[in-house]
Amino acid sequence: MEAVGERNIKNNLDLCKRDDNGPEIHKVNIIEGTGLDTFIHSLCTFTGGGGKSSLLYKTAEELFSAGFNVLVSTTTMIYHPDVKKRPYSRLVIADAGRILERLKKSISSPAAFGKGSITIAASEILRANKELKLKGFSADLMDSIYKLHIFDALLVEGDGAKHFSIKAPGDNEPVIPKETGTVFGVVGLDSLGALINSKTVFRLDQFMQVTHSKENDMIDRKVLLKLVDAENGLFKNSPIHARKILVLNKGDTLESIDAAKETGRYILNKNSVASGVLITCAKDADPVKHVIQKE
């Protein structure tokens, strides 16, 4: 069994240490919580539910504020940034045959970017069920964009969740590029303690199959562990080399953060495929409340 450490973060160089003093909240941003090297010259894919898109854009904002050029895209569909009032510097729409050249031209223009930028790339704009969305690119094309090395960081959304806090992947998802260095698997803390049914879980049948559970069972830490570690679970289709980080989002009370700590410790002490756990509240200025990692 691997030891589990918890980071009392003041800067990126702090050592891990045990925290047995209850729900101590460490308010830091995502870059501080995971380390800058997680994102720079890397491709990160976000999967799951419970605020995944909000965390992706929060990460993009932080990298932008630190002076980096960030690309945001998807291998499925995401909302048009104006729908959710997401920050961005420019939106590049081009089909698969033209996107590489369009991106090279956009990033090479001195007038286009100041110190730091957020570029959102998509193949087309769609109106689905009266909602404005962006259609993304194949995993292979995202790998090709990464290999251009014209962006400091690439952030990719790899599946959808229909606004649910917890889900199991469908047959053809998540779609994760092979060049992905880190996969963030996101679960909303409001799902813990809820009953397993069609109102709380997206892709209910797959979820029950993956977690060996039944309808109206409670979603507890044991169920979550099965979701995290199952071959067809939260980190399905992740490259072997990729770092896997479980994100427990919606930690907006001391009670929810305390419960998330216990859940995170339990999962990592079971020698989970996850290398660490972030407890977050994406809507906050400093979204990372606590970090638990294998030592």
Kindly list the characteristics that best describe this protein:
24% helix, 295 residues, 7 helices, Rossmann fold, alpha/beta, 11-stranded mixed beta sheet, 3-stranded antiparallel beta sheet
Number of helices: 7
Q: Judging by the overall fold, what is the CATH architecture?
A: 3-Layer(aba) Sandwich
Q: What string gives the helices and strands in order?
A: EEHEHEEEHEEEHEEEEHHEHEE
Dominant shape = globular
Give the C-level CATH assignment.
Answer: Alpha Beta
Number of individual domains = 1
Distance from N terminus to C terminus (CA atoms, Å) equals 11 Å
Task: Give the beta-strand count.
Answer: 16
Query: What are the segments in which pLDDT stays under 50 over at least 5 consecutive residues?
Result: 7-25
Q: How does the helix and strand content classify structurally?
A: alpha/beta
Largest β-sheet summary: 11 strands, mixed
